[in-house]
């Protein structure tokens, strides 16, 4: 296929730069502990300095893959499918999610919300970033807000973000992994003082699974 043809299909969400797919246990947030098939789509220009998948950023490094192929593979493993990245909302998620839904999958997204919301979702995990704030639509539709805490100032950011989400949105503070030993006591204290928040840990990293 010609380069322009591939570009066109990627623009339409009929092909997507697939980085990796794996069957694992959701490690974070509300669904932690639940078996789920993860689809990691390449491409992100938000630029979090502590991002734990920087290899995902450059979409060019990940092969444009026919969306139907991604779908056929995913539904073999699990009825819960998590779409992550990279930033999945870099791309039009309509095709991918419509096809997965037609096969009966429960669809979850991990997103910074920095780009226009596309796709049909059963669960939206919004993890907002200061560098590129979420769109209003994703604040309105998020099921959980998961703020990464790297330093004390992030607690202030967390409150600002909590003020923007819908009233049913479940609120989580998650320690940035590299500073977890320093940050966990801060989060524990904060959640006890402000019990509208819950703690989220990257439990998959403790379990040594993907
Ligand atoms: C790699 S991101 C991909 C999805 C999307 N770009 C986002 O940021 O939500 C998946 C989740 O991991 C979180 N995350 C990334 N790096 C982390 C780190 N070093 N410590 C804790 N959480 C991290 C993100 O905030 C997000 O909730
Ligand atoms: N087990 C596991 N759970 C996760 N929850 C969110 C993840 C992500 O990178 O989006 C992730 C991940 O990479 N692995
Ligand atoms: S938005 Fe997500 S994928 Fe992009 S740099 Fe930040 S944590 Fe990494
Ligand atoms: Mg991860």
Automatic annotation (TrEMBL):
Residues holding substrate: 25-27, 40, 84, 210
Quaternary context: Homodimer.
E.C. number(s) listed in UniProt: 4.3.99.3
Residues binding [4Fe-4S] cluster: 44, 48, 51
Radical SAM core domain location: 31-210
Cofactor note: Binds 1 [4Fe-4S] cluster. The cluster is coordinated with 3 cysteines and an exchangeable S-adenosyl-L-methionine. Binds 1 S-adenosyl-L-methionine per subunit.
Protein name according to UniProt: 7-carboxy-7-deazaguanine synthase
Protein origin, superkingdom: Bacteria
Family membership noted in the UniProt record: Belongs to the radical SAM superfamily. 7-carboxy-7-deazaguanine synthase family.
Positions of transmembrane segments: none
Protein's gene: queE
Keyword Lyase: yes
Its job: Catalyzes the complex heterocyclic radical-mediated conversion of 6-carboxy-5,6,7,8-tetrahydropterin (CPH4) to 7-carboxy-7-deazaguanine (CDG), a step common to the biosynthetic pathways of all 7-deazapurine-containing compounds.
InterPro entries cross-referenced by the UniProt entry: 7-CO-7-deazaguanine_synth-like, Aldolase_TIM, rSAM, rSAM_sf
Pathway: Purine metabolism; 7-cyano-7-deazaguanine biosynthesis
Keyword Lyase attributed: yes
Required cofactor(s): [4Fe-4S] cluster; Mg(2+); S-adenosyl-L-methionine
Keywords recorded for this protein, A-Z: 4Fe-4S, Iron, Iron-sulfur, Lyase, Magnesium, Metal-binding, Queuosine biosynthesis, S-adenosyl-L-methionine
Positions of S-adenosyl-L-methionine binding: 50-52, 86, 127-129
Catalyzed reaction equations: 6-carboxy-5,6,7,8-tetrahydropterin + H(+) = 7-carboxy-7-carbaguanine + NH4(+)
């Amino acid at each position: 296929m010609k380069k322009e043809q591939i570009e066109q299909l990627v623009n339409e969400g009929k092909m997507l730069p697939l980085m990796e797919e794996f069957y694992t246990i959701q490690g974070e947030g509300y669904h932690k502990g639940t078996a789920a098939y993860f689809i990691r789509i390449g491409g992100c220009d938000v630029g979090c300095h502590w991002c734990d998948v920087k290899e995902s950023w450059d979409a060019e490094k990940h092969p444009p893959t026919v969306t139907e192929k991604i779908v056929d593979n995913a539904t073999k493993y699990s009825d819960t499918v998590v779409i992550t990245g990279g930033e999945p909302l870099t791309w039009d998620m309509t095709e991918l999610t419509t096809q997965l839904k037609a096969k009966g999958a429960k669809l979850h997204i991990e997103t910074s919300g920095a780009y226009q919301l596309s796709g049909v979702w059963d669960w939206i995990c919004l993890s907002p970033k200061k560098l590129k704030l979420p769109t209003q639509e994703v604040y309105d539709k998020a099921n959980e807000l998961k703020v990464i805490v790297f330093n004390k100032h992030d607690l202030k950011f967390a409150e600002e973000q909590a003020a923007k989400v819908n009233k049913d949105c479940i609120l989580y503070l998650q320690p940035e992994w590299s500073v977890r030993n320093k940050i966990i006591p801060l989060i524990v204290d904060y959640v006890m003082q402000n019990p509208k928040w819950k703690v989220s840990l990257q439990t998959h990293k403790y379990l040594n699974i993907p």
